[in-house]
């Protein structure tokens, strides 16, 4: 079976990582536009680096939970394309061999001047020079608001060829990921949502399983494994 899984902040929340909160316009007590936009970075690069240094530290301290490990098991028995909106490495540390990070990763650094990429150090600063062009324009390799997500050229074809699409711990509010279920459903792909609550695009799914990811995902995976 060809399966595409999209994961969001909800799957890492049980590992202690804060989820993105849009209702009050704040994220970790910062205005979202100040720490997650090219404009915010241009205005105050030190604030943005401090914010992502904190996130990088917290992500390193977090541990994969049963949901991460269950998806690694699923990849052993089915043709799985695992796409995540998360920028942590909990899927990899949970055993998943291939993960598509459509919003980038805390482990990466990017030069805003020449687009060079390299592994990020634990702490980054505005004065860090690009190892390729030497410009002091280094930033986290994270997709911010107003920027194009990564790897869509791999994700859309995988959705179109899938037998099953599952969204786990996603809000259904951030596009283009929020449109994946609708796109897949139009092509006859079965779509299922696993979430604490119904997402904003819940109508696009054929089935829904409600509850903590660390409980629902292992049970769901066990059912799929039993079908092999």
UniProtKB/TrEMBL annotation:
Q: Specify one Pfam family.
A: SIR2
Class of the enzyme per the UniProt entry, highest EC level: transferase
In its UniProt entry, what is this protein called? Answer: NAD-dependent protein deacylase
> Can you tell me which residues bind Zn(2+)?
111, 114, 130, 133
Q: Which reaction does it catalyse?
A: N(6)-acetyl-L-lysyl-[protein] + NAD(+) + H2O = 2''-O-acetyl-ADP-D-ribose + nicotinamide + L-lysyl-[protein]; N(6)-succinyl-L-lysyl-[protein] + NAD(+) + H2O = 2''-O-succinyl-ADP-D-ribose + nicotinamide + L-lysyl-[protein]
- Origin superkingdom: Bacteria
Taxon lineage:
Bacteria, Pseudomonadati, Pseudomonadota, Alphaproteobacteria, Rhodobacterales
The molecular function terms in GO held by this entry are: histone deacetylase activity, NAD-dependent; NAD+ binding; protein-malonyllysine demalonylase activity; protein-succinyllysine desuccinylase activity; zinc ion binding
């Amino acid at each position: 079976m060809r399966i595409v899984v999209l994961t969001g902040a909800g799957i890492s929340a049980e590992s202690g990582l804060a989820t993105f909160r849009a209702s009050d316009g704040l994220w970790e007590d910062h205005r979202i536009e100040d720490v997650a936009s090219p404009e915010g970075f241009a205005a105050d690069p030190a604030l943005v680096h401090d914010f992502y240094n904190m996130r990088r530290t917290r992500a390193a301290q977090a541990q994969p939970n049963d949901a991460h490990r269950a998806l690694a098991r699923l990849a052993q028995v089915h043709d799985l394309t695992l796409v995540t909106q998360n920028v942590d490495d909990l899927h990899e540390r949970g055993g998943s061999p291939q993960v598509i990070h459509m919003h980038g990763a805390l482990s990466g650094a990017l030069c805003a001047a020449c687009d060079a990429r390299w592994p990020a150090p634990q702490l980054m600063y505005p004065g860090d020079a690009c190892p390729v062009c030497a410009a002091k324009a280094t930033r986290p390799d994270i997709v911010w608001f107003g920027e194009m997500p990564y790897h869509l050229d791999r994700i859309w074809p995988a959705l179109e060829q899938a037998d099953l699409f599952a969204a786990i711990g996603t809000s259904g509010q951030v596009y283009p990921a929020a449109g994946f279920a609708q796109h897949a459903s139009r092509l006859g792909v079965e779509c299922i949502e696993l979430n604490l609550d119904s997402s904003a695009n819940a109508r696009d799914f054929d089935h829904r399983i409600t509850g903590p990811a660390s409980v629902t995902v292992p049970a769901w995976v066990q059912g799929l494994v039993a079908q092999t």
